[in-house]
Amino acid sequence: MKKLLGILVLGLLLSGNAYSEEIKVEYLGDEVWFVKYDQDCTYKGGLKGVGKKKGIFKTKQQGIKHGYGLDDCYGGYREGQFVNNEFISGTVVFPNGNRFEGRFDNNGKLQGEGIAYYKSGDVYEGKFVNGILNGKGKHTDTNGSFWEGNYENGYLIGKAIVYDAKEKITWKGNFTKEGFTGVVKRYHDNGVIESGTCQKDGCNFNAVKSLEDIKKTKKEKKDKKNLYKKIYNKCILENLKGQTDQEAIKIIKEACKDKAENPSMLDKLLN
């Protein structure tokens, strides 16, 4: 059984740049600047505190990133909204291919609703607190199947449902840090539903039912209930006529219940 691990969104790789040498700055108009810090790092977007607004020039003034911008450095980048040099919302892509979207705190961790895309193909989305899933969330696996439920500190905890890539339910049960725990149901494409229990060392299934069997069982229960009512009502009508003694009425009702629980009485009572 697959175990869902906690998701820790690391601090942003692309922190504020600090240079002692002159940097190349170009004003592109409409409050958009292009800054080349060195051969590996550039920035394009809103900038405050770099002086003149024309042409290309060099300066030791770093400026303050403010407004919409794209910060590209060492193979990764941040694109979105900056406020006084802090990246607060947008997309962060790391050199290894991992990508995070949402709102970020001063330490570069996702806060609130967000999505984490990993190079492996796994996708996590939901509510993040300090870079970790907390609350309702969803994990989509590399094969397209996905898990939905409530997360606590990055772990899927409580009632959970697993769907395949076609959004058909494949598992239902209770989840802990160890995976599915306790009573579970496993659903197959051919309509078979397995019931069983899961523990840390695996799952055991003790009952197999097809959808047809389940429908048949429901129908049998309904028919049995209707038959009970029919026999009981027939018995009552035949035995309570003119009866006024309360104790006798009670005895007759109990007797009719016994008869109604025995379907073999049907022919005798209804003929």
Characterization of this structure:
A hairpin with a 2-residue loop joins strand 14 (169-176) and strand 15. The protein has a domain at 219-270. It has 271 residues and is of the alpha+beta class. It is 18% helix and 48% strand. It has a 17-stranded antiparallel beta sheet. The two termini are 58 Å apart. Mean pLDDT is 84; it is low at 1-18. It has three helices and 17 strands.
> Low-confidence parts, pLDDT < 50 over ≥5 residues?
1-18
Order of helices and strands, N to C?
EEEEEEEEEEEEEEEEEHHH
Whole-number mean pLDDT: 84
Radius of gyration: 34 Å
Percent in strands = over 45%
Write down the overall geometry.
elongated
**Biggest β-sheet: count, sense, barrel?**
17 strands, antiparallel
**How many extended strands?**
17
Alpha plus pi helix count: 3
Secondary structure: helix percent: 10-25%
Distance between the termini: 58 Å
Secondary structural class: alpha+beta
